[in-house]
TrEMBL record:
Sections of the chain in a coiled coil: none
Its EC number(s): 1.6.5.-, 1.7.1.17
Protein name (record): FMN dependent NADH:quinone oxidoreductase
Annotated cofactor note: Binds 1 FMN per subunit.
Biological role: Also exhibits azoreductase activity. Catalyzes the reductive cleavage of the azo bond in aromatic azo compounds to the corresponding amines. Quinone reductase that provides resistance to thiol-specific stress caused by electrophilic quinones.
Amino acid sequence: MPTLLVIKASLFGDDGQSSQLANAFTSRWREQYPNGQVLCRDLAADPLPHLTAEAVAGFQAEATERSPTQQASLAMSDTLIAELKQADAVAVALPMYNFTVPSTFKSWMDHVARAGVTFRYTEAGPKGLLETGPLYVFCARGGRYQGTENDTQTRLIEMFFGMLGFAEIHFTYAEGLALGEQAAAEAVGEARERIALLPLSVREGSQ
């Protein structure tokens, strides 16, 4: 039974444009995989704490040496990583805040990037340790940044998820959402049209 993990980072929950695009994709995914399951990690409804030096030390410490706080941080990190490992496809609803990803999503990234667990260091650079399927990213932005030097998100997502082992990444952009009602409606409409054409697949062997 294939599993889709949906990660939502909008401060506005399901009212956010990125969340609505991810929901549209999820509906299409459910039609393709009626026996599949969907896991949702809403980072606005259930925000993660920022990574601390104590938590990092706990990741590296022996089990008997961890403090209760470190044990709790490790358990949370393990849960997030387990969700990724369970997923046969991942969808990320990603708004742009101040030229970058939401801080809640950055906290998620910090808790799943664990050397020796989700990636390892090599002389050629980091190498992913996760068995992954496709990643679908739904970017909602007030201005227009795609293809410009101000699009800091796209390369960050490619680098980060590539480090974990994701080789297939699909981006869908809805831009100019703050440039008037007509521009916003056109951007969302075009994004939904692209969602309808996205190739749907899951991790090999999961069907």
